[in-house]
Amino acid sequence: MKAVIEQKAVSAQALAQDLTKAKSLVVFEYLGLNAVALTALRKKLHQANAKMYVAKNNIFNRAFALANIKQFTDLAGPNAVLVGFGDEIIPFKEINEIIKNNKRVVYKNGLLETKLVSSNELASIASIPGRSGLYSMLLSCLQGSIRNLAYGIQSIAKQKA
């Protein structure tokens, strides 16, 4: 019995270390997802520098306490936690896509940086492009003005020649 308690403490400590490094996290009830869907989700998250944890609620509660995250208390039901380390929006996009496809999956709470994200805000955050998408939009805006200036100068050069 003592070994089991020690193993739970080690698991909670490892999860707490990842939670302190996280830029965003999402807690959801994964009831209704089969093993194939969970494996596909884990692969997508792994490619996007994020992780998914499935554990007992007691371990989650201990890890949240160790990581000093007070927004999530008294979890009930089969819960999973998505933790984003790179792009903050990826966990929200993934869970929003799953909720659209599976009505039994329930979004509980999310944390973006230090702000609590309610279920009402989930869809609006999920619609935001990822970090790379935002960078490409900014670059396109910056290039647009320079491109138009270059076309203007080129047309003037053609008229003068």
Describe this structure in words.
The protein has 161 residues and is of the alpha+beta class. The chain contains 6 helices and 5 strands. It has helices at residues 2-21, 35-47, 57-66, 90-101, 119-126, 131-160; strands at residues 24-29, 50-54, 79-84, 106-112, 115-117. The protein has a 5-stranded antiparallel beta sheet with strand order 2-3-1-4-5, sandwiched between helices. α1 packs across α3. The mean pLDDT is 84.
Summarize the SSE layout with pairings:
Blueprint: H1 2-21, E1 24-29, H2 35-47, E2 50-54, H3 57-66, E3 79-84, H4 90-101, E4 106-112, E5 115-117, H5 119-126, H6 131-160
Antiparallel strand pairs: 1-3, 1-4, 2-3, 4-5
